[in-house]
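Run log // design_07
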């Protein structure tokens, strides 16, 4: 394969930096990462061939400082800079600085970015290119009374948009004229605060809107192709949540009209590189060729580009690199076709129960389904820091048709396991199984309308408690030496805290090896055929006989243990308040004597089979230069002595067990 470059710098972090590096690697191009303080140990740094530190953790002092990035490229001999998305990807001044330094910017020209940078100018440009735009007002006059009259003319409901807006900021929907002045003032304030530009435009609010966008690609030889559409209607607060390609319900007529319009848009600005033309589509009935309008153009690679890659088989990053190096587009329009259907779900560290508040934390565990493409920039053990976007991964599935791809998505989400931070995984699963979504019948308001059902308070199932209790007690019925014999008929009590609430349960082992879980004397469930195999736990549920499987993470913390049970993609974290509570409780119940602290056994008084009185000294251990007597908690027969004189034992280790009490 001919290499367009021999070395490139990726001016980004996280999943997109890693994703660009994978393609570069495949093409034999060497990669340079840049990183901030917080990212010194990040996956994108490890993935790159070399890495340059560019400053403190806040993006404004590192990833957004164009000059530092250009210097890093020059210092490492990189020939081109790939900006990823976000950060400097749509900053025309940066593009000019990169070019002035004699480097190649992997993206469009500064002029193209400027032409599409402001929503009002872009709409004017599109109108002259013959592309339908949302009816509205996008002129210079900004006087409040004048804008109110324009809103009246357009007809309510209207949408006020900051012209410099992005990510849903500076946008206000207004239902009636009485609300207009206040909404205008707040959109202007937000535009000023976020983009230093209070200028707004006003649009007709399209009811039941769908967001459908067309991927376009141009080269420096005057060629332009489209790579079909993506549907990004599943949004929350104007942020995309699940995307798919192609759009459900798309007709040949509408696709023809939309892709023609998208190509006219790209040609109008001599577009070179990967770009996306976003349209709003009337979804109140069947899609129709006269029911779509230009919203804006994104002059970069989009987050959701993998769904297009899945259905076209094109590696868009490879195309970006080739086109940036001056090569012609690898394929012509007639060579491109749609193969099947694809979905992408955005997995975030955020807490749906708390209004989707971004979450931080250390990923105690992270694993993905093998049935999906998982684009990620983090690994088990990594920290989700507060400095950047809290995206954990994009889960992408591809199938021969929509339902097949959707089933794969549901399955993949089910097998996506994250422990250590709140995530939107269960919300994504609920969404992927929502009736409207299943039927392909939705608009951008679906999530907001059905939010309560989609984020229904996660249920703490008895099964999770049972599995966590087994793990916390260290019980492995398959290994009788270490587990089985500790279990008399007496119940072993354990306390597990989940979401601040303490659950107390008693576990007892029946002669057939099944475990009953009780709460205040009432049996909640029984588990049989329990297998603990590495991080995997499985059991058969009493009654139904169903098999349950889970993944266990047992994370020792300084003062407690964190046991995460992942069954499906439902993760429940339990705090075991006292690391020795399990065995200490067993001791309380008189079935075992545990080491009260870490130390050495200096003397033993009993053997297996001895009959002892309550209070009898069983042995002596030494810890921190002090001797401690091990005392029989009750009268009974010694079942086993699990330590020897001179042995070093851990605090909490079981030292002596008793035969079960006849009356127990
Ligand atoms: P941003 O640049 O802030 O992302 P966009 O102009 O791309 O803003 O719009 C974001 C989302 O807002 C769209 O995906 C769509 O859901 C909604 N939206 C935008 N314009 C309209 C409109 N005229 N009517 C209804 N919804 C709209």
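design_07 sequence
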């Amino acid at each position: 394969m001919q290499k367009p470059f021999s070395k490139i710098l990726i001016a980004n972090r996280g999943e997109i930096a890693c994703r660009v590096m994978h393609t570069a690697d495949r093409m034999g191009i060497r990669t340079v990462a840049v990183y901030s303080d917080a990212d010194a140990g990040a996956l994108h740094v490890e993935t790159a061939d070399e890495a340059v530190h560019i400053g403190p953790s806040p993006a404004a002092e590192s990833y957004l400082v164009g000059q530092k990035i250009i210097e890093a490229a020059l210092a490492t001999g990189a020939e081109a800079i790939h900006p990823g998305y976000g950060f400097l990807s749509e900053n025309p001044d940066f593009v000019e600085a990169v070019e002035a330094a004699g480097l190649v910017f992997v993206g469009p020209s500064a002029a193209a970015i400027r032409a599409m940078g402001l929503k009002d100018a872009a709409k004017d440009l599109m109108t002259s290119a013959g592309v339908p735009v949302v009816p509205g007002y996008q002129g210079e006059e900004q006087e409040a009374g004048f804008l109110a009259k324009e809103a009246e003319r357009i007809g309510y409901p209207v949408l006020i948009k900051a012209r410099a807006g992005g990510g849903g900021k500076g946008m206000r929907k207004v239902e009636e004229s009485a609300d207009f002045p206040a909404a205008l003032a707040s959109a202007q304030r937000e535009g000023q605060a976020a983009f230093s530009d209070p200028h707004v435009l006003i649009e007709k609010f399209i009811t039941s809107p769908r967001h459908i966008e067309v991927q376009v690609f141009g080269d420096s030889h005057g060629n332009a192709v489209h790579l079909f559409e993506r549907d990004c209607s599943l949004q929350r607060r104007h942020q995309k949540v699940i995307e798919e390609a192609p759009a459900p319900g798309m007709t040949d007529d509408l696709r023809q009209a939309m892709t023609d319009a998208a190509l006219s848009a790209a040609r109008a600005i001599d577009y070179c590189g990967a770009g996306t033309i976003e349209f709003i589509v009337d979804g109140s009935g069947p899609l129709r060729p006269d029911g779509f309008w230009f919203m804006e153009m994104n002059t970069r690679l989009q987050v959701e580009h993998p769904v297009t890659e899945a259905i076209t088989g094109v590696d868009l990053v490879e195309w970006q690199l080739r086109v940036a190096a001056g090569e012609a587009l690898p394929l012509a329009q007639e060579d491109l076709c749609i193969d099947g259907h694809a979905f992408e779900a955005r997995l975030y560290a955020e807490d749906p129960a708390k209004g989707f508040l971004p979450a931080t934390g250390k990923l105690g565990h992270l694993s993905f389904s093998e049935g999906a493409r998982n684009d990620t920039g983090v690994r088990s053990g990594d920290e989700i820091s507060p400095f950047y976007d809290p995206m954990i991964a994009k889960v992408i599935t591809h199938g021969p048709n929509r339902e097949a791809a959707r089933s794969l998505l549901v399955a993949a989400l089910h097998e996506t396991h994250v422990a250590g931070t709140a995530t939107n995984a269960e919300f994504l699963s609920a969404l992927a199984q929502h009736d409207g979504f299943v039927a392909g019948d939705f608009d951008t308001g679906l999530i907001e309308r059905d939010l309560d059902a989609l984020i229904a308070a996660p249920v703490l199932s008895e099964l999770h408690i049972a599995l966590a209790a087994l793990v916390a007690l260290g019980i492995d019925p398959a290994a009788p030496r270490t587990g089985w014999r500790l279990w008399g008929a007496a119940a072993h009590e354990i306390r597990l805290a989940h979401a601040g609430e303490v659950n107390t349960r008693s576990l007892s082992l029946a002669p057939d090896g099944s475990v009953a879980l009780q709460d205040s004397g009432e049996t909640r469930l029984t588990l049989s055929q329990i297998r603990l195999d590495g991080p995997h736990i499985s059991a058969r549920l009493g009654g139904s006989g169903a098999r349950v499987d889970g993944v266990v993470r047992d994370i020792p913390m300084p003062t407690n243990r964190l046991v995460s049970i992942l069954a499906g993609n439902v993760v429940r974290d339990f705090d075991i308040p006292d690391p020795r509570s399990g065995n200490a409780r067993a001791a309380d119940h008189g079935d075992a004597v545990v080491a009260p602290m870490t130390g050495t056994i200096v003397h033993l008084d009993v053997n297996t089979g001895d009959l002892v009185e309550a209070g009898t000294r069983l042995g002596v251990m030494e810890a921190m230069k002090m001797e401690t007597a091990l005392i029989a908690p009750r009268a009974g027969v010694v079942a086993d002595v699990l330590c020897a004189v001179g042995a070093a034992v851990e605090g909490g280790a079981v030292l002596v067990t008793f035969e079960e009490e006849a009356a127990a």
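Residues 134, 159, 161, 165-169, 171, 203-206, 209, 211, 235, 238, 278, 280, 295-296, 444 surround adenosine-5'-diphosphate (CB under 6 Å).
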